[in-house]
Amino acid sequence: MGNQPLVLGIETSCDETGVGIVRGTTLLADAVASSVDEHARFGGVVPEVASRAHLEAMPATIELALSDAGVVLSDVDAIAVTAGPGLVGALLVGTATAQALALATGRPLYGVNHLAAHVAVDRLEHGPLPQPAVALLVSGGHSSLLRVDDVTAEVTALGTTLDDAAGEAFDKVGRLLGLPFPGGPHIDRLAADGDPQAIDFPRGLTGPRDLEQHRFDFSFSGLKTAVARWVELRERAGEPINGPNIAAAFQEAVVDVLSRKAVDACRQQGVGHLLLGGGVAANSRLRVLLEQRCVAAGVALRVPRPALCTDNGAMVAALGAALLEAGRPASALGLAVDSGLPVDQVGVV
Ligand code: KG4
Ligand code: ZN
């Protein structure tokens, strides 16, 4: 325990300023400041607002993480930071901070991939990762199915969204129903009182032709348009809108496709472990349906607690510690951010 590396991780790829501290696979601190309220009136994350918020929140978030963990900066063995994918300006605040900390402490710097970090975080919850595993990462910024043979070196994309991310679809439909931003949690709550079978909304990329080309890809923009059209037609006819039914039927369409494709990926890859991550992992219906389908398919499902599923610094620290343990090379101090960092690039050298 004492010789496991103490790693500080910084996450700023979107609207959460996260600073986490881990010792090996043990979580010591997970400080997060979110600028989500500042974006609410725009109905989506505004990059410039996010960058400024990161800058303002960073010093206090670092202080909080250090005091929660009961350590001082000079105790830290390595600094890890999200280098991409994400919003360029937001990422730059994180990497500039990490560079300064690495320079000040003389410790190595690890620039890491945000998606691999979403996978690595489960080490803090359930211990060493089962590998190979398939990972389903669903948030406001990404929807990906990955094959993970080694989270420190070998992560392969099986599929991704061709348009909106799953969480983005929740947020857009939330706006359509007059719910506050982000819409995901509100739709989840509203759906509890609705009938998921009330409306048969389309399941994107599940037809026979689509499955040939896009077996593990997602598309949610057609679904969003179908919901918009449904609402518009009812409004024009002067009929009442049943919010709970729309929310439940929309949610069912999203989680049906997500869970079906994730389990199909496990089957096709011959992999017995599935990891779920990203903000949408908090969705109550997704958790239930995915668990049912995993049990039926003989797949073991691992889902970290909600606070570790959403963007945070602990996930970055967890991946940094894994890279250090595996003897992977550190990044150059002048490390560049890459808003479109490919998922197979786990660490940035
Ligand atoms: O991972 P995250 O905190 O940030 C990024 O987008 O990277 O994910 C936020 C997303 C939002 O789109 C939000 O609406 C969605 O996760 N979300 C949910 C739920 N809780 C959060 N979507 C559906 N059901 C939920 N319970
Ligand atoms: Zn994320």
Rough outline? globular
Portion of residues within helices: 40-55%
Could you spell the SSE succession in H and E letters?
A: EEEHHEHEHHEEEHHHHHEHEHHE
The largest β sheet comes out as:
6 strands, mixed
Q: Kindly, what is the distance between the CA atoms of the first and last residues, rounded to a whole number of angstroms?
A: 28 Å
Q: Bound compounds, please?
A: 5'-O-[(R)-(carboxyoxy)(hydroxy)phosphoryl]adenosine, zinc ion
The number of helical elements comes to: 13
Briefly note the structural class of the backbone.
alpha/beta
- The residue ranges in which pLDDT falls below 50 over 5 or more consecutive positions are none
Name of the top-level CATH class of the largest domain? Alpha Beta
What percentage of the residues does DSSP assign to strands (E)?
15-25%
Describe this structure in words.
By secondary structure, the protein is an alpha/beta fold. It has two domains: 6-121 and 312-348, Nucleotidyltransferase, domain 5 (2-Layer Sandwich); 131-304, ATPase, nucleotide binding domain (Nucleotidyltransferase, domain 5, 2-Layer Sandwich). It contains 13 helices and eleven strands. The chain has a six-stranded mixed beta sheet with strand order 3-2-1-4-5-11, sandwiched between helices. A five-stranded mixed beta sheet has the order 8-7-6-9-10, sandwiched between helices. A hairpin with a 4-residue loop joins strand 1 (6-11) and strand 2. The longest helix is centred in the C-terminal third of the chain and has 27 residues, at 243-269. The chain starts with 5 loop residues before the first strand and ends with a strand.
